[in-house]
Amino acid sequence: MFIRSSNVGYPRIGEKREWKKTLESFWNGQITKEQCTKMMEAIRLDSIRKQMEKGIDLIPIGDFSLYDHVLDTAFMFGYIPEQFQQIDDTLEQYFAMARGTNGQHALEMTKWFNTNYHYIVPEIGQTKPRLVENRLLKEYNLVKETFDLETKPVLLGPITFLLLSKQYDRHEWRKHLARLVPVYVELFKQLSEAGVSFVQIDEPILVQDIDDDIVDAFRDVYEVFHRGVPNINLILQTYFDSVSHYREIVALPVAGIGLDFVHDNGENMKNINTYGFPKDKILVAGIVDGRNVWKSSLAQKATLLHHLANVAEQLIIQPSCSLLHVPVTTKHEHSLPPELAGALSFADEKLDEIRMLTEYMKGNTTIDKLIQYDEQTNSNLAKFRKQQEQINEITAVPVSRTPYSKRRKIQQSHLQLPLLPTTTIGSFPQTSDVRQARMKWKKGEWNDHQYKSFIKKEIAKWIDIQEQLQLDVLVHGEFERTDMVEFFGEKLQGMACTTNGWVQSYGSRCVRPPIIFSHVSYQQPMTVEETVYAQSLTHKPVKGMLTGPVTMLNWSFVRDDIPRKHVLTQLALAIREEVLRLEAKGIRIIQVDEPALREGLPLKKEKHASYWEDAVMAFRLATSSVKEETQIHTHMCYSQFEQMMHVIDKLDADVISIESSRSHGELIAAFETYEYKKEIGLGVYDIHSPRIPTKKEISEQIERALRVLRPEQFWVNPDCGLKTRKEKEAIAALKAMVEAAREYRERLLACGGKPSWK
């Protein structure tokens, strides 16, 4: 039987974030373009070498990116919007599309399916696609020359690419597809002529609810591929859930079908048992979880593989998806409890699992070796399973508040905020001084008193800056926090944080998701000291800043034998306790951020209702115990909000702030069809771009919003937190924002509080 091992994709960031450091050094002008290119090549080749040493048969290329693989696809096929075409340098042009320039907005950014990875949304327009550069061929030749190794090029498929793009009439998407497919064929032909045998073409759109038109498009496109390049083995790769229209998809003329047997809820196996699997195709089985960090039960995986081997004559064993979504290696994790560290499997360790399973299926190792591996893992987790508690009684906790119309009047009386109040989302720039102070404290070079004194100085500095800027609602700046989830993960019982467990979120932004290994519970106040200190420095209200339970769940690695709903309830109760502690100390506005509210949404619509019910319940469990006069805020970013307005309403937050400017205000159209009665802040400028918005641009955003929202319900704020920006950038942008809001406020008051066009 044909059995091989494979990898879907490897983390691009390097063991110690060498990729991030190289990118930011280049952006800051510390290294040249040539130095950046050389350093990136070294990181890329090192990842290939490691996969070779792990014994992987089919090693991917094309999974490495300087920013984002969807942007890479757009760039390779010439989808460069007109506003960037005047930039001559290709690397500068590429980064301009991702990050913007002083004169141009960056392209929109949003979540990659139901993950915390953000991709750059391509703009199609009237572009006639062409193969600008076959970067896959360049990478293939580089690796072959360096290691004498045949690799597997990977690229995003044309149908998924188009359906994730924007700026074209969706009724004409098949016309755009017809223009794009020949360019793919040209690329495949060049790869075939170079000797490429296998090409992985990712079409994750297949796991969503797709209609007959899309299924017909797959038939047409892959028939063209089959006729155009018959000598190349195309692997049609899916992941994150089960394939929709299974029988039609497995009948497509490709060499192999990649299926996820981890996150499919058993549906892929059910379809195979019901309809079989084509004997002439390779079953590419995603067996090891590419999205979580726990070791696999290899004996269970072996049972599954035996079943698959009985229905398919050719089998490739691989992770369920790209390992982009997990940290690189556990070998640098020395601070975790040994029993916890011994239960973890990051990217490198997952490749070891793939190799062990492949060797077993080839008859080169015994089941006893797999059982021994499992016994060690179970021994490590045994202690934490005993600690896991059940929550059976939460009926005494309020999940609803006084009707909004009544509590709004009470809040207005207490807060005395002006029309179009201005605020920020929470964090201020994490300068090198802030990072160095935190490092000195963690290394023991500073004691607690020295560190807290430094943090207080930063808080005082930025309270003063905010007052000078004349913001209406202030924040303490979150200088004591590394990440909005990691910070709480360090303080809650049942959660652990890694030393080097970095994962790419967007661009060069990397996060270390906490690990939820046992019962989550509140231990002591987490944010009260800093927030109360900030409030003592000003008469203006200071927001308490917390991360919501749904985001904490979705941005953590949760033990896969604990029900997620159970963990969600524990997190909600812990955040509720902190909310009440802040309120008891006189904090009148408390923001419970939920940027990942939509992220965990199942990809199949039939499962949406249950997810939303749990998410809404968790948020209300965390926030509904406060008094009427306490104003609850929440924040969300980079999601398809227009599809979830009814859910946002059910959260019953007094004020919701949502990213809007990165999508150039398109979200505003959602309020033309959905009447939202509570208060809302639509982000008026993009914080992920280094460009500083003009007062005129912000005024245009305010005016556009007020065409569908009432002035008395509208807040003015940036898209997101300002942690990643430089101090001068943050201050200049906020100055423009406050001035634009003040001028607009004066115009409204001059005409009785109503926009002139109403």
TrEMBL record:
InterPro entries tied to this protein: Cbl-indep_Met_Synth_N (IPR013215), Cobalamin-indep_Met_synthase (IPR006276), Met_Synth_C/arc (IPR002629), UROD/MetE-like_sf (IPR038071)
Binding-site residues for Zn(2+), renumbered to this chain: 635, 637, 659, 720
Active-site positions on this chain: 688 (proton donor)
Organism superkingdom: Bacteria
Record note on cofactor: Binds 1 zinc ion per subunit. Binds 2 Zn(2+) ions per subunit.
Keyword field contains Methyltransferase: yes
Family: Belongs to the vitamin-B12 independent methionine synthase family.
UniProt name for this protein: 5-methyltetrahydropteroyltriglutamate--homocysteine methyltransferase
Name of the coding gene: metE
